[in-house]
Amino acid sequence: MSARSSRCNSEISKSRQEANNMTKKLCGTKYPTSICFIVVNEFCERFSYYGMKAVLTLYFLTYLHWDKDLSTAVYHAFSGLCYFTPLLGALIADSWLGKFKTIIYLSIVYVIGHVVKSVGAIPTVGNSDVHIALSMFGLILIAFGTGGIKPCVAAFGGDQFDEENASERQKFFSIFYMSINAGSLLSTVITPVLRGDVQCFGGDCYALAFGVPAALMVVALVVFIAGSGLYKRNPPQGNILLEVCNCIGFALKKRWRRSKYDPQRTHWLDWAEEKYSKRLIQEIKMVLRVLVLYIPLPMFWALFDQQGSRWTLQATRMNMAFMLNALLILLFVPIFDLIIYPIVGFCRINITPLRKMAVGMIFAALAFGAATLVELNVVKTVVDPAPAGKCLLQVFNLVEGDISVTIPGNDLFPKPIPYLQDPPKYETLPLEASSKELRIQVVFNEKASECNQMFEEEKAYSLILHSTAAGIQCQLVEDFIMKSEDGNPLLRFLNTQPEAVNLTVGHVTFHVPSRNMSANMTVDRGEYPDVGCSLQSEKCSDLDLGLLDFGASYTVILTEESGKFVPHEMEDVEANNVHIAWQIPQYVLITAGEVMFSITGLEFSYSQAPANMKSVLQAGWLLTVAFGNVIVLIVAEGAGLEQWKEFLLFAGLLLGVCIIFSIMAYFYTYVDPDQLDKIYLEDSEREEDNDDKMKKKTEDIQLNKKGKGTKL
Question: Transmembrane: present as a keyword of the record (predicted)?
Answer without folding.
Answer: yes
